[in-house]
Amino acid sequence: MNRPEDEVLRAVTVDIAQGNARGIASIYNSAVAAWAIAAAWEIGALDELHRARTLDTADFAERNDLDPQSTTGLFRALSAVGLVHRDGAVVHTLDAYDDMYRNKSFFHWLTRGSAELFRQIPSVLRTENRTGEDRLRDPAAIAYACREIDQVTYAPTFWAAVDRVDLPFTRVADLGCGSGARLMQVLDRHPGTTGVGVDIAQPSIDVARKEAAEAGFAGRADFVQGDVLSLEPRPEYADIELLTCFMMGHDFWHGGRENCVATLRRLREVFPAAKRLLIGDATRTALPDTELPVFTLGFELGHDLMGTFLPTIDDWESVFEEGGWKLVRTNRIEMTVGEVIFELA
Q1: Which 3 state secondary structure label does DSSP give 291?
Q2: What's the rounded Cα separation, in Å, for the pair 173 and 243?
Q3: Over the stretch 280-295, which tens digit does the pLDDT of each residue have?
Q4: In the β-sheet with 90-93, what is the strand arrangement from edge to edge?
């Protein structure tokens, strides 16, 4: 004969099992939704929905020559994780949509820019394969995402730092320039300036040149393919007065602290007229595993997989003097990945 407490125990067990199943489904559906967010942003659907708050996905697909069933499927993925409400092909934003929209570039960085790196985790984990895995990332997609990541995280603090530069400058260089957005923004705010962007990835340089020409900066902005970690002097570097370097400073630490010091010293030699250097980058966080905000886990695991050392703020502050620079100010942002901007003289 079944006792009442047995029935209660069975009911609790069923509830736990169903809850676990729902939780596991949420993990899987969230992974699919991450890809859908990146794709919907790239095709312009996220922006249109953000403006109008409602979107007929079938109509959007027809206007943009897209497969209607697949386009609706993208938003089914967003509906599954509570970002939109879907009524057939028509979707409406929910409260969580705006927060996702502010963070959409982080999803693009993960799924479009770093997809192959994460796909190859079983191989990358093996000791014999750990030869630096940055080649597994898509530099053009990374540059696309980082343009907005920069605006979300660094931009307000960066412009405050530029405004504090107390020496006039007419020549600026952006190291690790990506799509060239930062350099063009500086030139736009300072009409008398010219500058050069340097990036190791030729696809990013191609994008930067194209966008600079379209924006009317072709005569003021030059872009050079080169490895910031091993630059050699060039005529266009000789008169640079302001150096900026964002979202790649951790690469200075490849090979250890000594390499970072050497890179900082080399920048003094390659850019002899430089009076200011602004370095903005992520730093290693110390947050509990269950309290990580968006982007932190993907960024830190991704760089662990690539064998890239992520310095702390203290690590950085210990190398500047030895590298030939004076630390003027440390600007802690720390929104997602311990972001910081160092002002150096």
Answers
A1: helix
A2: 5
A3: 999 998 889 999 999 9
A4: 54-56, 90-93, 84-87
